Structures are given as C-alpha cells and as structure tokens.
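EI: anyone free to look at a 139-residue chain?
SC: sure, send it
EI:
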Amino acid sequence: MKTIQFNPNTTKQQHKNKWIILSFFLTCLFMCQLSAQTSTNANSISVKGIVYDENGALPNVSIILKDSRTGTMTNTKGKFTFPENIEKGAILSISHLGYKTQNTTISEASKYLNINLKLDALDTVLIAPNSDKIYRTKR
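SC: here you go
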C-alpha cells in the first residue's frame, strides 16, 4: 500500500490547489451520478388508481405489468398502488373473475387510473370436484 507523506517544501497554495482539484472532481462525480438517476426516472412514473364496475369498487382485482412478474391487487375499497415505478409505454393488464380483461398503456396522464371493468357474460361456471379444470359456458 502506498503511503502519502507530507512534504515540508510544499506551500499552502499548492495544498489549496490540490483540494480545489479534488473538490471539483468529487462534485463532477456527484453530478454525473445525479444526472444518471434523473434520466432513468424521467421515463417512469408512479401509478395509483381505483377499479370499479357498475355496482361500485371491486376488491381483489389483479393488476399485472405485461411481460413481467410484477403486479398488485386492489384492496377492499378497490384502490391500488403499483409497487414500483412503471416506464411510460408499458402495458398494465387488469383482470378479475367474471369480468373482461382490460389493458391500459401507461402515459404521463396515467398517474391515477379510474378503471371501469365490464362484465364478461357467463351463464355458468362448473368446477368438477375431482378435476383441476374449470369449465365456463358463455352466452
């Protein structure tokens, strides 16, 4: 390991110049780091919202970011907050049993979403007791 030794022949001005250069370098490094963080976050936004149907808020609705494993569910009041920032242009898939799946593209205006799910016309749902399949009949 290299040690730095004090040179008695260096003047106070030379020490001051070294500190100025070091301070300038650290400031530039900090600004570059801050700029990199800002540019990655500039294209992503935080998304919140509510999901409802004609009768009111819908609990336990799945909201999933397409082509990923990231998602969330609505609470008992139909409200949700996505766990991480979402890139603009990404697609959210909103689904619930008995309702049509709805896809929403994220834009700058998507900070708070009001999502109205439409009923999917099902006559019957048959779950066989000795099978892992669910049979649906549409009208």
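EI: The mean pLDDT is 79.
SC: 👍
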